[in-house]
Amino acid sequence: MQTISSSGDERRHRIELALGERINALISATRALSERSAAHFHPQLQPAAFHVARWLYAFGPARPSEVAEAVGMDRSSTSTLIGKMRSLGLLDSSPAPDDRRSIIIQLSPEGQERVAATIEERGKEFYARTQDWSTEDLAQLVELLGRLTSERSPETRGQALSP
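Structure (tokenized):
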């Protein structure tokens, strides 16, 4: 738990606590949206499948091990999920050109269509929440979130966020 500094900056402390609450609310809302997005992508798959598909949509064909590392899953779980996605016609695979024992996976045309449709649905939800915001407000939010999430060295890092 954070203590109030000797300067007694009670207002800053209250604001930091409020920030922590807002971040927690944002995380909860994002998780809920991710669950809905995953169900929209394919109702027979667990939410992690949409993360795999979205990564492949953004970055293109890759080895399963590369995808697993990129989305933060273990290789065994990723392999099982990839098998299920292939059986549903969402992924295609081919031998890796540099190592015929390895495979490269990519979204099938159906997988690409489903990811694109799911991303469009997500966009509609964000638009609905921000449609009455000014362009300046949106730009400020983007800038502030960028500052909040940027990686900084320990020497330049400010106080830790309140939980």
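The helical segments are 10-41, 47-59, 64-71, 75-87, 109-130, 135-149. The first strand starts at residue 91 and ends at 96.
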